[in-house]
Amino acid sequence: VLEGSASLISSSLQIAPGMPDEYRVMGLNYAQDPPSCIYGGTCTTPGANYIGVPSAVYAKRGHKSWYQGLRYSANNFCKPDPKAKQSYSTVAASVKAGITENSCSVDICPASDDVYGDLSLIDGKGEDHWGINSNGTCYPLWNVYTGAYLCDPDNTYWKCAQPRNATTTPKSNAMSQFNYQMDAISSNWPVHVGAYTDYVVYQVEWVTGKNGYVRWMLEGNPIFEVPAASIWDVPQNGNKTNPEKIMLEEPMYIIFNVALSSSWGATPPNPGKKCRGDGSDEETNKICDSFPLYLKIDYIRLYQDLADDLEADNYMHVGCDPKTHPTKKWIEAHIDEYQDDDNQHKDDAAEDWQVCEREMPVLVLVILGWSTVHNSNLQLFRFPWQQYLRRLVCFSSVAWSIIKENNAAAVLKKKGKSAVDLAMGSNLQDEARLEQVRYTTERGSYGNGHRQGHDIHHRPRDNYSQNFV
């Protein structure tokens, strides 16, 4: 997920089943702290501000907490602030000795406020370390939002956002019962003003497998990274009560949109009424004058790595229903998880066929040269052969669409273009990058095309890995 508000962008992976409470940040004492204190690290409840802070408080658990080894790096396009500069030696020594304060500051915690984060050299080279703000520029912060607790509408469990009151509200039976914790492995990182005045390049690298990672970048510079080891190698108590997970590898799709969310504190003026109200409030008028807002996108590109040295569990591919993860079969076998009373599953092919059959009578009349459609004596469709003709025309229409799609794919493949190129603009640098990587246009192809036929590189189709995303 890549979402934002004003000068802040949030990058996150949403994973389930989430960690139990004893592995999460410690709860607030609401008698002494307001709920909003977590956003500024001002809570007085021990351990309620940041995970692992203070060290001694969390050490009492007997095991580490949350996800280990997350990686954070600076947005150096921001103006430097001398007060925000850090020294690796100072911060590393503080973390090693243990944090004694109940909150973080520049001299005692990594710039991310994540004391469990990676502090090694970025990509193992140079002088810059993950988690250290050596330039005093904008820096991503560990997100205090760690995931929602999800429930069905009839659930009465106390952790649900809106548990049903069993004494006043009858069951709706809208869907099967469920309740579970989601984990948001997330970071909030500031962007510079240039993000609003010019195009900037946002990038995501996603590599599956035990040695994989998800990395968010700005103009080629890493901002936040989740190594696969952080997901599958989670902290455990003696009874191993923390659910084990795998690196995200399920097929996904991309959504780009502009929206206002109350979760980010967006409250439009005069909700439900005219934006400006009676027009007397100057501040309200300025807000309303700023609409509509636009998200300008120059290009969107997906790159696929087809190198010969990919690891066996690197399921690189472009497409929503690969053979390694047959999404269509999974959905069909668990259809109740994808629909409810208000949102029923629809078969597009069947619906298209119904529309086709509905429109065919007029089309067939035209084909046969009939000039009067509304002739009350017309008996054409009482005979079986007319129905066969109608179906034949429908079938031919669908078949022709498939042929056109296949021809288009073949042309793309012949030209050696990228698997997916939604570019609306281009430049020589991007074209040079395109030439460096080989691409495929086959929808259902394995990304590791060079390994096809080698069963050891692919999981059995009837026993593929599952992950909740």
From TrEMBL:
* InterPro entries listed in its UniProt record: ConA-like_dom_sf, Skn1/Kre6/Sbg1
Q: What GO cellular-component annotations does this UniProt entry give? A: endoplasmic reticulum membrane; plasma membrane
GO terms classed as biological process: (1->6)-beta-D-glucan biosynthetic process; cell wall organization
Q: What Gene3D superfamilies does the record tag this protein with?
A: 2.60.120.200
Task: Give the keywords, sorted.
Answer: Cell wall biogenesis/degradation, Glycoprotein, Membrane
Q: What Pfam families has UniProt attached to this entry?
A: SKN1_KRE6_Sbg1
The entry's localization annotation reads: Membrane
Q: A GO molecular function for this record?
A: glucosidase activity
Region ranges (Disordered):
443-469
On the tree of life, the source organism's domain of life is: Eukaryota
Q: Which PANTHER family does the UniProt record give?
A: BETA-GLUCAN SYNTHESIS-ASSOCIATED PROTEIN KRE6-RELATED
For this entry, the protein name equals Beta-glucan synthesis-associated protein
